[in-house]
Amino acid sequence: MQTPSIITMQSLSKFYEMGDQTVRALDSINLDFRKNDYTAIMGPSGSGKSTLMNILGCLDTPTSGIYELNGQDVATMDDDELARIRNKEIGFVFQTFNLLPRLNCLRNVELPLIYAGVAPEEREERASKALINVGLGDRIKHKPAELSGGQIQRVAIARALINNPSIILADEPTGNLDTTTSHDIMNIFGKLSEAGNTIILITHEEDIAHYTRRMIRLRDGKIESDVRR
Amino acid sequence: MLLRETVTQAIYSLAVNKLRSLLTIMGVAVGVFSIIAVMTALDAIDKSIESGLTSLGANTFQIQKNPATTFGSGHSRNLYANRKDISYQQALLFRKSMEEKSRNIGFMISSMANQAKYANLKTNPDVTITGGDENFSASSGYTVLFGRNLAESDIRYARNAVVLGSEVASTLFPSGENPQNKSLKINGKVYTVAGVFEKKGAAFGQSQDNFVLIPITRYLDHINEKSSLSITVEALSRKNYPLAIDHAIGAMRLARGLTVKDANDFEIRTNESLIDSFREIQLAIGTGAFIISFMALLTAGVGIMNIMLVSVTERTREIGIRKSVGAPRRTILRQFLLEALFLSLVGGVIGTITGTTIGNVVALQLNLPLIFPWLWITVSMVVCSAIGMAFGLFPAWKAANLDPVEALRPK
Predict the structure, then answer these.
(1) Do β-strands A38-42 and A64-69 pair in parallel, antiparallel, or remain unpaired?
(2) How far apart are the first and last CA of chain A?
(3) Per-domain residue ranges for chain A?
(4) Which residue of A lies nearest to B409 if distances are taken between CA atoms?
(5) Of A31, A59, B71, B363, which residue is least crowded by CB atoms under 10 Å?
């Protein structure tokens, strides 16, 4: 029996006007992500993977086509509705970590819960738990600057997970890390996948992509290959 | 998002740039300070106006050549300057025709900056010589402490009698020696002390006891014959007061020889008219201070907008991160708006505290009562909030509408 789709994209396009030229960053792609998929999206720069990531993450909307996330039509939503979807359905992990440098780990991790309207006591409790789960129970009050790259990325993962999102979207999560740390981080993603999370990873590194179970290759805004293992 | 988090975030963000926030706050503080300080001082003066300006006795009014204060164009000033002095003869004529219809008609004339000497003691050269008659003390609210007041005969024969104000008396007779019948020199001329007035105290920081009273006839003979008298008149009763003023105007017109076509060339001063003319000054100063302060606050508002725009640019990434984890536009808007509001309100509070303090210090120097100008504090706070909101709105709107993809793009 097939698990239900979490994400459905049909003839989805994103065009940019660059002077008098139209850049087809995504050209009528069809994609489907099912619950517990562990996917790597690969492609050379300019292939459209960043655009796809922005649209998947509801940071941007497509020029045309259908994008359904958990049965909700995201393509036509306004900014505030998209913000709510990002808050509830999506956990981001970025290459540049994107933690707020002035806040300690706990405050960074609880940030999505603030916008979700969760009460302070519950926020702290859940954020502490999330940090313990990524092995940073002793770094709760530390600021990002006091942590190593791997630790910072684990804080970011804790933040991505805090609101139990439908998908975890990681954009080159190991791009700024050394090989050993990269593998630590990928092991965390592996465990998250085993625990039933849906993970989409954007990378250009083959060895990182090999941790996943599905590889999608993009080229010139089109899907070149989509292989499940 | 809860308001508490927004407030905490706003304060925290401002605390990170302490110097910058402080400088912006100072701009607002200066504007509010000037409003509050001026208004505190004016309110303090206002509070003492009733006691300070009611120098005339009850049911008493005064006739003088010029109004207490003149405002307006050169034309109206020239009008007053061309008026003829009120002479002693006119005053006597006036008294004659008013004797039945009022009482205690007193004449008075003053010159400032004189010096009195007794033995080897002398006053500062700031003593006022008042030429008056036997009714002066009653109509001006002085009582004789010891010795006697001027008598009708002193006036008639232009005697060299003098009644001392308490300050002059205590300077020249410091050891409590009885000054009565002692001879002293005022501006080199000899006078004999008839009595001493009781202390009246200061009004607007000005002593009312640093003066001497001599017969008006002597004053006109020896000090200045070409000066304009002021006449005080007491109505027979409170009810009679308006009528007495009407009679006085008629009598004065007659004494001045005015024809039907001529306008009055003298002014009636009542306690009310003195207060009114003071209020006119107060209003002018108050309006001026408010306009200037408002300009200062507008400038401060531009400063707030400037700093908030810098802040939005600096924190583009923070805004992107917040948006990526689900911050809606209104929350970002509220956060930046609150920061602007906080800057202006803290400035407002600082300005209010220093303004009230300095205003009250000035008031204390002038022996005026302490004041807490609630109205102006409220007005300042409202204006501050409005300015914080108005000038914070554009930067906040800019922040709220940042494109998250752009904001998160690595620089």
Answers:
(1) unpaired
(2) 17
(3) 5-228
(4) A96
(5) B71
For residue A14 the two structure tokens come to: 């994103």
In the 8-state DSSP scheme, what is residue B321? Answer: H
Residues making up chain A, counted from first to last: 229
Q: Which CATH architecture has domain A5-228?
A: 3-Layer(aba) Sandwich (3.40)
| Contact residues for B167 (Cβ-Cβ < 8 A; gap 6+) | B199, B207, B209, B210
For A165, residues 6+ apart whose C-beta sits below 8 A from its C-beta are: A88, A89, A90, A91
CB contact under 8 A, B324 and A100: no
Give the model confidence (pLDDT) of B366-409 as tens digits: 777 777 888 888 988 998 999 999 999 999 999 999 999 999 98
Contact B408 A79 (CB under 8 A): no
**DSSP state at residue A222:** E
Contacts of A49 in chain B (CB under 8 A): none
Q: Hey, are the CB atoms on B405 and A100 less than 8 Å from each other?
A: no
What single-letter amino acid sits at B61?
F
Gap between the terminal Cα atoms of chain B: 29
Domain boundaries, chain B: 3-51+276-408, 60-269
Any idea what the Cα angle at residue A200 is, between residues A196 and A204, rounded to 5°?
Answer: 140
- Given the structure tokens 């010891």, which residue do they identify? B146
Distance (Å, whole) CA A211 – CA A189: 9
Which of A45, A61, A102, A108 to substitute to test the interface with B, most B CBs within 10 Å? Answer: A102
- Interface contact B328-A117, CB threshold 8 A: no
Of the two residues B115 and A198, the one the predictor is more confident about is A198
- How far apart CA A111 and CA B96 sit, in angstroms, is 93
> For the residues B77-84, what does the mean pLDDT come to?
75
Residue in the structure block whose two tokens are 């489907």: A32
Distance CA A28, CA A223 (A): 9
Token reading at B92: 């006597």
- How far is B205 from B291, CA to CA, in rounded Å? 28
What ipTM does this complex have? 0.94
